[in-house]
């Protein structure tokens, strides 16, 4: 049985939120957050590598579209695909239940650290020729998240 990612995130938060708060109290917010980003970044980069290799799609657009489907499972995201081609995938996330969850538990800033900060390392795991640009997130108060994936070859 596959557990949707949104449910996995909620389960992980039970452990990670108190851990991050303890690290912040001990080390200061900046140092603790950098430590968490580094540790989780390495994990998400490897996850991205494994996920990318396992995809049946033949091009960047197909593979990233499949990734978004996984992140949206369980009604976690509403999103609009602006462009999908062999060399690009542009999408706006218009509703994010990850953000709502972290807001509900009173730590929206940790939602960005523990969820959104994974996006760039995971994209790095997709390979050296994949570039991600994102200028805003719902988690940080924007109206939408703007993900732009492209091939560095083009």
TrEMBL record:
GO molecular function: hydrolase activity
InterPro entries: ATC_hydrolase-like
A family per Pfam: ATC_hydrolase
Keywords of the record: Hydrolase
Protein name: L-2-amino-thiazoline-4-carboxylic acid hydrolase
